Every structure is written in structure tokens, then in C-alpha cells.
Amino acid sequence: MAKKRITAKKLAGIELATRCIQWMNRGLYLFVAVAFGLLIAATAVPQKKEYEKLKAQLRTAQEREHEALARTEHRKIELQALRHDTAYLEVQARDRLNFYREGERVLRFNANR
Questions:
Q1: Which tens digits make up the pLDDT trace of 7-52?
Q2: Considering its fold, how many domains does the chain have in total?
Q3: Could you give the C-alpha distances from 18 to 13, 23, 97, 98, in angstroms and in order?
Q4: pTM recorded for the entire structure
Q5: Full DSSP string of 29-98
Q6: What number of CA atoms fall less than 13 Å from residue 56's CA on the CB side?
Q7: Cβ proximity of 82 and 89 under 8 Å
Q8: Which domain holds residue 21?
Q9: CA-wise closest residue to 15 among 5, 4, 23
Q10: Does any domain span residue 75?
């Protein structure tokens, strides 16, 4: 059997084809990597929006909780004053019953305006 001889011209053609295939492979790998990165980014966007929405809901819930705690604290203080402070109790009772002392001037402001 005789060995096949490859000429320099044929060898140069094969090397050129090999280099082209290598560059196409690199390009394909780059394309797949970019597509995978875009896919990951595309799935992260809705999660980020949902996270921001939940964060805003948490902030409003914390504000409502803070307001409720402040109202509760105010009511506790008012209850303590009604139980132990006779001057406060007198002012509240006179205000509700529209009583006033002789010579006393009472000013009332309408809170609805």
C-alpha cells in the first residue's frame, strides 16, 4: 500500500478550514453564553419588580403599625390621666357636658373645617 501524500496546497486548505471551524465554534459559544445571560436577566426582572412591590407593601404596613402603636400609647396615657388626674377628668367632663364656670369664656373650634 502506498501512503497518500498531502501537498502543501492541500494542507494549507485543510488548516484554513480548521481555523474557520474553530472561529465558528468560538462564535457559537459566545452566542450561547450571551443568550444564557440574557435569559437569566430576563427572568430576574419580574422578580425584581415583585420584590420592590412587596418592599413598598411592607413599608406601608410598618407605617400603619407605627400609627396604631402611637394611638394605643395615646389611649393608655389618656386612661391613666382619667384614672389618676382629677384636673384632666374635670376638663374632659366639662367639655363633654358643655359646662362652664361663671365668668369663664369657652372657645370651641370646629375640627371638620
A1: 888 888 899 999 999 999 999 999 999 999 999 888 888 888 999 9
A2: 1
A3: 9, 9, 102, 103
A4: 0.50
A5: HHHHHHHHHHHHHHHHHHHHHHHHHHHHHHHHHHHHHHHHHHHHHHHHHHHHHHHH-HHHHHHHHHHHHT
A6: 5
A7: yes
A8: 10-97
A9: 23
A10: yes
